[in-house]
Specification:
- This protein is an alpha+beta fold.
- It folds into 2 domains: 103 residues, 2-Layer Sandwich (Alpha-Beta Plaits); 138 residues, Pseudouridine synthase I, catalytic domain, C-terminal subdomain (Alpha-Beta Plaits, 2-Layer Sandwich).
- It contains 6 helices and 10 strands.
- Strands 1, 2, 3, 4, 5, 6, 7, 8, 9 and 10 form a 10-stranded mixed sheet that branches.
- Strand 8 and strand 9 form a beta hairpin.
- Helix 4 crosses helix 5.
Length: 254
């Protein structure tokens, strides 16, 4: 691969994907689990050989879905973008699709060039489970007051230290502040959708935000209690981590 990257013909391509996370153990390559990155790199190997480098926009976890996922691909292979898109859609598993492929500037990076990301979390709020949503939305059978939860969620908006809303491991170091630009809770029939946009997210941050709001719905955390949890900077004060099945990376903005 090294000799290819020394040539002047190296291109930087932006691939836009969508995928069903139920089929994968997240994005990033793992030794003993099938991931989206492995599926993509296997397909690329069949099409352009091994002279490429891929960088993903986010480390989505096992079971998390993506309506929009961006990858920067560096390769010296001359295949046109439209042909690469078509070939990838032939070789990738049916649970992954390439929506677009375009050439971008050499310094573009799928992760570090990102200005904001938007996640949505889907909750099927009905006493009766929906078998067609198994693995694609959290089934929550108890009443949810969407207006109350939306008001409570506004405490997330702004630049805060979100240590209380992060599962700490060796991937999280340094500045724990993130700027949340939007958090909304809406209802469409029995489907409740929580939507959050920020300049970045900590590990499990969205799922802990959702779990905390569900604790508000249960009366275990007061509706005005989220600012105090943020100030504590301690994971034990926030709610549980909501299941991965309801989470979707929805938009990536550059």
């Amino acid at each position: 691969m090294q000799h290819l990257f020394e040539e002047s013909a190296v291109r930087n391509l932006l691939l836009t994907l969508c995928y069903d996370g139920k089929c994968f153990h997240g994005w990033q390559i793992q030794q003993n689990a099938f991931t989206v990155q492995e599926a993509l790199q296997t397909a690329l190997g069949k099409i352009i050989g091994d002279g490429f480098d891929v960088k993903g926009c986010s480390r989505t976890d096992s079971g998390v879905h993506a309506n929009m996922y961006c990858v920067s691909l560096k390769t010296a292979h001359p295949i046109p973008c439209e042909r690469l898109k078509a070939a990838l859609n032939r070789w990738l598993p049916l649970s992954v699709a390439v929506l677009d492929c375009t050439q971008v500037d050499a310094d573009f990076h799928a992760r570090y060039s990102c200005k904001s990301k938007e996640y949505i979390y889907k909750i099927w709020n009905s006493q009766v489970r929906n078998p067609f949503l198994e693995g694609y939305a959290l089934h929550y059978r108890y009443p949810l007051n969407v207006q109350q939860l939306n008001r409570a969620a506004q405490a997330y908006v702004g630049l805060h230290d979100f240590t209380s809303f992060c599962t700490l491991d060796n991937r999280e170091q340094g500045d724990m502040r993130r700027n949340v630009m939007l958090f909304s809770v809406t209802r469409e029939g029995d489907m409740v959708i929580m939507r959050v946009e920020a300049d970045g997210f900590l590990y499990n941050m969205v799922r802990i935000m959702v779990g905390t709001l569900l604790r508000v719905a249960q009366g275990k955390i007061p509706p005005d209690g989220i600012p105090a949890i943020i100030e504590k900077r301690d994971r034990k004060y926030a709610g549980p981590t909501a299941q991965a099945c309801g989470l979707y990376l929805n938009k990536v903005r550059y």
